[in-house]
Structures are given as structure tokens and as C-alpha cells.
Amino acid sequence: MLHFKDIITPVDFKVTEETTLKEAITLMHQKKWSLLPVTDASGQPVGVFTRSSLQQMVLEETPLPTSIKNYIKRQVEKISVNTPYEKIEELVKESKVGTGVVVDQQNRVVGILTKTDMVMSLLHTSQELQLIKKLKRTLETAIDHAFDGIVMTDEKKVITMVSPPLLELYNLSEDAVLNKQATSVLPQLELEKVYESETAEVSGFLEINGIKYIVHRIPILEDGKVIGALGKVVFRQLNEVSELFNKLQKAENKANFYHQQYQKSETARYTWEHIFSTDPFMEKLKKSGAKAAKGRSTVLIRGESGTGKELFAHAIHHSSARSSGKFVVVNCAAIPEDLLESEFFGYEEGAFTGAKQKGKLGKFDLANGGTLFLDEIGDMSLTLQAKLLRVLQEREFYRVGGNAKIKVDVRIIAATNRNLEEMVKESLFREDLYYRLNVISLHIPPLRDRPCDIDHLISRFMIEFNQILGTSITGIEDQAKEVMFNYEWPGNVRELRNVMERAMTFSEDGKIKYEDLPDYLIKLIPVKESALHVSMVENAELEAIKKALVQVHGNKVQAARLLGISRSGLYEKIKKYKLPT
Ligand SMILES: Nc1ncnc2c1ncn2[C@@H]1O[C@H](COP(=O)(O)OP(=O)(O)OP(=O)(O)O)[C@@H](O)[C@H]1O
User: What are the residue boundaries of the CBS domain, all occurrences included (predicted)?
Assistant: First the structure.
């Protein structure tokens, strides 16, 4: 923006009453000016020496060294240097003289304003105007096509521009908004705030007709003064964004929680307190586990997948005398067959060509003085079973590629969901190893056989996930609870825990609802109900099987004989009625 002081012609010489005609001619010639401002000693204007004054002196043949004093025009057209730029046009139009003398606040001459200055400045203004027009058009186009709602106000908070999406959002017409006070037509935007604060700010979530939006308020500043404001209303996809944001926050909380948990312990993380249950049989089982922990014997934990076998193993180690030692987990089903041996016993340097040359400690080495938890023991190959048996008997082993006997003091806890007895019968599991492992056996019942634990676990996981996810879920609606009670939970506690985590992640209003549960669970419920509506004949059959099994203490061969059906026939019925195997 051009200022008045930028367009005037500055005066860098002094002409007084004592200036001679010769000096005046020289100056006018040099500067090509038709007027010289004449000042007193302190720079105050006393008049002007014009071209016509000069002509007169020449016509009168005034000698060159004569002072100009008597030819000075005493009437001076003075213009203040602080004149607003906008006034120039007016000034140019109204001024009777072609050139004005410009004075500062102390009435000292600082320059002159010539006709050329005026024309040049007007030219400049019109060029600026063109540029402004172009910019305005560009801005209007941008605003019209803006994805978000945009509104602009001037220094008086009057709306100068508004974008169509904003009008749509508030259901307003352009006429109702343009040139109106923002505070009266769009008070919810609170644009006036930035006129005071002079800093940009973002509102919290606002809502209109169920649409969430946020407002960015941005002051438009010029020379440190607020000359307007820009309001940006972001509402498209904000619901999704805010949902994502919530989920992200939950995920972050979760990651933090797990990170803390991980840092807390490198050894067994869970104790008996972590095994939630109110079922009397489970309580007894925990007590047996705690007793077993005190001894040295191998413990075999049985139970379906997800019933908490690993949790029991952690707790046993934790409450044993070797709790300060390591708790090393080996999932026998997850390690490739050809690596299992080296995983267990480690290998000597150079044992393999092409492999890591350095040698490696095996799990038995690592667990020395602690506990080795062999998960999915039923999935171990017969060869390895033989090697494991030897270590259990002799408490020593050889590394792969090594000759030295390594002595170890390791307590073994094994777990499986497979029927080891059947596997022994079918020669898939070594009998001697089975007896060696089965010194103390703990059989964790499936969740469907301890229905009161479902309710208890729901409450406990709710507390846990509120902490992990940073949520504040206070309960579960009856309908959702019913679904959970009627479900079979083939994945046992693990599945229930996952379902709770999912439901709490999706829950929006402090209570878990039916629709927060996974589809497969909701859909499966009728299946369970129809399975329960067995015919009378089937009911009688089921009772007979149960009775027979109790009578022969669970021995399937004898039970089949008692019932007069084949062994495979009995297995089929057990599967059909979902009886424990
Ligand atoms: N009684 C319980 N209280 C609290 N959490 C439990 C309980 N039982 C199981 N869980 C949780 O369920 C999940 C599965 O438990 P765990 O890994 O101990 O089962 P598992 O029987 O070893 O399963 P798999 O046979 O598949 O290895 C874990 O997240 C565990 O924390």
C-alpha cells in the first residue's frame, strides 16, 4: 500500500528570502521544478518562488545577484505529510494551484507535491486497483469452491464473503448473511474473539443438526492491527475423523499400557490374582496349582485353547522358590520341526555351515535356575520327545554339534489341549514321557462349564480395558449380556477377552450394547438355542452317555462297552452333545 510520503518530491535544499535570482534560476533548471518553496531559518514556509516570479524578475532585468525576497508569493498551499493517501484524489481535484508545499507536523517544509507526482500516484492506484480486483476474483473463486465453510469479515465485523458450504450448513441464504454483522447472523462462530485476542484459535467440537464441526478463527492483521477475520468451519467427514481420533487415542493408551507392562517384568508376569474366577472348581484348581508350585515336580496343565493354561504356568512359576529365575516359554507347535532341537538345546559354534557361526544358547540354558514352559507339548515330534525325556531323566543334555554334557536345573511345566492318552494309545506320544510329565496334572475346565465365571470375567475385563483403553465404560446392557451368556465360547476366556476389548473400543455411550458385539457372535446365538432344543429321545441318549461316563470314571472304551455302541460312535455322540472330552 502506497503512503502519501512516498509520492511527494522531497526538498533537499534550502531557499530563503536571501536566495539570489541566479541561485533560484540554477535550482529551477537543475531540478526542472516550476516552484521553489521558500522557508525561514527554522524551515517554516514563508512562501513560494514560482516560474512567473522568475519571468517577472527577468522582464524587469533584475541583476542576477539580487535576492528574490520581493518576488516571493506569500500565499502557500500547504499539505500535511500525514494526509491520508485516499485524500489525494480529492486534493488534486480541488487544488487551485498545480503544486503544493508539503509540511511535517512541526510545520517544516519536507517536500513538494507536483502535478506529475499526483498523476503518477493515481496511475499507481489504478494499477493497484486492477491487481486488487484480480485478487478478489481469485479469492471469490477459491471460496466458492472451498470444501469447508468459509466466512470473511472486515474491520467492523461485517461479513464480506461467505462460501456456499457454510450457508448450507446453517441453512442460510447469501442475502441474509452478506454485509451483515457476523455477531448477529453467525453468532455461533464467535469471530469477535479474534478481534480482541489478535491470535488464531480453534474451537472445540460443536454440533448442528447432528453434524459435528469445528471453527478455526483467524485474525487478518495489517501493521499489527486487526482489519478483519477469517472463519473456517470444518465439518465434512468430521464424524469419521473424530471417531478415528478416539480410536487412535485408545490405541495409543493401549500401546502405552502394554509398554509399561512389558517394562515391568521380563519374567513371569502373572500371579494367581490375575486368574479371575468365582467358580468353586477353578478356585480349588488355583489352590492345587499354588501347592504344586512349592515343589519341584513337573506340572502338566490340560484344557482347551484359551482357558488360561499359560496364565497358570506363569502363576506357578511366580509363586515357586525359583521365581527369581527366568520363565522361558517354548511353543512346541510354532517352531519348525528342524529347528526345534537347536531351539531347545542350542548349538555350538560352527555347528551349521552357512548358519550363524557364533553358536547359540538353547531354551534349557536360558531357563537354568528357572522354569521352562512347554506349550502345546502334544505337537512335539517323537524324536524330540525322546530327547526331551532324556533331559528330564538325566537333567543334562548336549548342544547340537557339541560333545560336552551340559547340566541344568530346570523345572518343566507343560501344557496341551490335545488328548495325550489317546495319542499314547495311537503311539503318537511316548508313554514314558507322558508319565514323566503327568506328575501333577491340572485340568482347566472350558468356560461354558463355568457359567458364573462369564459374568465375573466381563466385570474384570471391563475394569482392565477401561485402564488400557482409557475408556469409562460402566456396564453392559441386558440384551448384550444375554448374548454373551448364551454363547458357547469355543475360544474360551481368550475369546471373551477379545470380544470385550472390541466391544469397549466400539462402545460410544458408556455401556456395552448388543450392536457392539461382533456379528458372528450375534448370528451364532440361535444355533446354540436350537442345539439345546434336543428331542426327548436325544435327551435320554445324552443322559445315558453322561451316566455311563461317570460310572467308568471317564474311560471312553469302557463307557462305549457299557452303552453297547462302538468307541468311534461314542466319540461322535460326545462331539454332538458337546460333552467334555
Ligand atoms: N481366568 C482368567 N482370568 C483372566 N484372564 C484369563 C483367564 N483365563 C484366560 N485368560 C486370558 O485369556 C487369554 C488366553 O490365556 P492363555 O494363553 O493362558 O490360554 P491357553 O490355555 O494357554 O491358550 P492356548 O492353549 O491357545 O495357548 C490370555 O489373554 C489370558 O490372559
Answer: 8-64, 72-129
